[in-house]
Structures are given as structure tokens and as C-alpha cells.
């Protein structure tokens, strides 16, 4: 019976055949241990010399790393294994023998591993990270579906910028100038006016020459937009969503978290509601922590976000930033127009901002004024202005960066490991 590693528990005591690759092996005189992977998981195959044909045992001792195989054996319980099962091997059929696989069990430098990213993905750690990424994506679709949202896909090629053109990739769109999208948000606002509650999930691009562990050139964003929803209601959606992601990973990725040696007690604390502080109080907090040079009106960098997060054991919202350092579409606080109804969600453990969101301006005249202040061309943004002209309503939205969230929940230091093929300032290969 042919099966996969993630399904062997259903075949306890039965003989099965698994298509797999040899990840690693070790052997003594009378027994060989084969570390097998098939894409769904990892399992140990045990080959006992006295219980198999001589040629099978010799093959088990000679096959090379990453050789592809059909392995037939009996599924048995193994309490010493993190997976809980192993395979008592009876037969081995080589499909293709790999020679001189470049990534060996020894230590390799980061640049070497990145040059071989197409092969590094096969390792147990990378497998665990991408499985957690997949769980976050699955849970995202489930959360928004259960809460009445529909998925809408904004364009990747756009004729305007969501937050200014300084960090955009330019391209020629026949006779027009176009950009790779840095956010689908403006288009999602249009979708919210049609469908009420929507979300998008897709790639975004920032031509930002940053080399920090939190930045990628190409990354994926989840961007919900909600009609008839104010800032406070949006914050509740955000904290419920992030809590849902954390609990889904805890429930469905136990083996992967163990592989990564993640401290799950930190994830267990991620439950709504989250603490909130205003930008004003954040400034005061930073000064108390020794950041004497930070002044009101300045944006926060990574050291500032980390210092703020250290005061909390959960993610923390920083709300009501100065209008001058935030995007043109954010709604001013009616009681204090110099700040806007916005929030950044800062993850603990130094992972920084994972969500940015705000209530959007819904007043036509105020948006016209913002257009003038930011010198937005009327042609490129005409359609966005019209959203305030035809049945405008209070509405809010946010964007969650997938890779930063994967890094945080999995405990990985650098976002380059949280996406299958990262695009960095100095890397477009493989």
C-alpha cells in the first residue's frame, strides 16, 4: 500500500511503500538508520541486516544523500522519535541516485546556503518554517471566511503609488509609466465599497535599500478593508486575527515548533486583547529607557520598536501617530487633528512591526486637501477620490506582513528563511 509519511499513523502495523529522499543515514555492523523525507514529513527507516536480503542491507549502507527511493516496510510506534513512528524496512528501490549533494550535515555559511536555496529548502529546519508559513496562510483564509470576508485580488501593476513613489520599482507599461505594487490597499478600499468586508493576499514590492533582518524586497501581505468600521473596531479585528494565527500554529504545527526549538510559552501568551499605548506615551517610555534624542514627530526605528516591546509580554499597539509621518489617506483624530486614527502592532522578542493600519479618510473635501498637500496627480488618483464622492462611509483597514509574522511565530531570526526564494538587496538568485 502506497502512502505518505504524514499518513503513516493510519497504517500502524501494516506494510506500506513510501516514495522518499534520503536526508541522512548512519549505520553499524548489523543495522542501518535511514532518515527519510517525502515532502509531508520526516521518518526514520530501520534496516536490520538479519531481517532483509543481503543486497537490500548493502544498498542501505551505500545509498547517498538525497537519492530518491521507494521504501517498503512496516509502520511501528517509536516513542523516542519526535514523530512517534518509524519504518521497519523490508525493501528499497532506488529511483535516482544523487551524487555529491552540496549541502551536507556539516555547518555551511549563510551565503553558500542562500546560493543553494533551491536545495536548502529540503532541510528539516527549512521544511518546518515553510510548513508554519503554510499554516498561517491556511488559518488566514479560514479566519476571514468565518467572519464574512471575501477575497479580492488587487493588481500588481499599478499607475499610482499607495504611499508615495520613492520606494517603488518603475516599469514601462506600453506607452505609460507603471509601478510594481507596494500595497493593494487603495484597490481594497474600492472593493470594500462594493462588498463590505474584503481581504487580499498577494506579493508586494519595496525598492528599499535595507539590509536588516526584518526586510525583503519582495514580500507577501494580507490586507483587509472593512466598510462601516471605525478605528477601534478595526483594532479588535486585528488582535483577534493575530491571536487566531498564533493558536492555529500552536495547535497544528507542534512538530515543526519542536524542530525549531521554539519557546511555545511565549506563543501561548498571544491572546486578545492586546495592550495599547499612544505615540505620546511611547515617546515618554523611550525617554525613560535612555533614548534621549527621540523627539515628538519622529518615526520609530527598529531599536525603538524593540525597546517598547520589551515592556510587554504580548504584542502591543502603538496608536495615534503624528499625521506628518503617516500616509495621506489616514483619518485625523477629530479631537486632535495633528494625529491620525492609526496603529502599528509591534511583536515581542524584537520582531518589530507586523501590522500597520488605520481608519481611512471618508470626507471628500478633506481628501481633496490631502491630494493638494501631497501633490497627487488628479488623473492617476481620480478613481480613488471618487470613492468619497459616491456613497462614502467610515471605513478602516490594515496590512499584515506575512514573512515577519512567520519569523516571529516560528522564532526565526531573519526573514530570508521565511519565504521559499527570498529577494534581497543583493540577491536575485536562485
What does this structure look like?
GO terms for molecular function: asparagine-tRNA ligase activity; ATP binding; catalytic activity, acting on a protein; nucleic acid binding; transferase activity. This is Asparagine--tRNA ligase. There is one protein chain. The protein is an alpha+beta fold and 430 residues long. The chain has 2 domains: 2-96, OB fold (Dihydrolipoamide Acetyltransferase, E2P) (Beta Barrel); 117-417, 2-Layer Sandwich (BirA Bifunctional Protein, domain 2), CATH 3.30.930.10. Helix content is 31%, strand content 28%. It contains 13 helices and 19 strands. It has helices at 54-62, 110-115, 117-120, 124-146, 185-195, 231-252, 254-259, 264-268, 279-288, 302-309, 364-374, 378-386, 402-410; strands spanning 2-3, 15-27, 31-37, 42-48, 68-77, 85-96, 150-151, 157-158, 170-173, 176-180, 197-205, 218-227, 276-278, 316-319, 332-333, 336-340, 342-347, 352-360, 395-401. It has an 8-stranded mixed beta sheet. Strands 2-3-4-6-5 form a 5-stranded mixed β-barrel. The longest helix is centred in the N-terminal third of the chain and has 23 residues, at 124-146.
CATH superfamily of the largest domain: Bira Bifunctional Protein, Domain 2
Helix content: 25-40%
CATH second-level architecture of the largest domain? 2-Layer Sandwich
Quaternary structure state of the chains depicted? single chain
Strand arrangement, largest sheet?
Answer: 7-11-12-19-18-17-14-13
| CATH fold assignment of the largest domain | BirA Bifunctional Protein, domain 2
How many domains in all? 2
Q: Give the C-alpha Rg.
A: 26 Å
Beta-strand residue percentage: 25-35%
Largest sheet: 8 strands, mixed
Please tally the β strands and state the result. Answer: 19
Report the span from N to C terminus.
37 Å
What is the 3D form?
Answer: elongated
- Count the DSSP helices: 13
Structural class: alpha+beta
| Overall pLDDT confidence | 96
Which CATH C-level class of the largest domain is it?
Alpha Beta
Poorly predicted tracts of residues: none
